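Title: Request for sanity check on Acyl carrier protein prediction

Description:
We are preparing a figure and want to confirm that the structure record we downloaded matches what your pipeline produces today. Could someone re-run it with the sequence below and paste the raw structure tokens into this thread? We only need the token string, no images.
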Amino acid sequence: MELKEVITVTNKFLVEEFEANLADITPEANLKATLDLDSLDYIDMVVVIEDNFGFKVKPEDFQNIVTFQDFYNYVTARIQQKELV
């Protein structure tokens, strides 16, 4: 899966599941602040990621994710790792 497709799928579920405004989702925007995420929202996000992309997410993976671009890069890297196995 290419980065462009990851961005499209991700933005779609962020709008649907987290009621995000698509115009606010930009690569440099802060993920937590833009989506107004709390700890329970992160759990919901893990479930949605696993359902949409088919890999397991560890909660500590979110420690280095600050922007939407960080998030897209994380998902893309994990998909590529999965494809190599």
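Thanks, this matches our download. The chain is about 60% helix and 0% strand.
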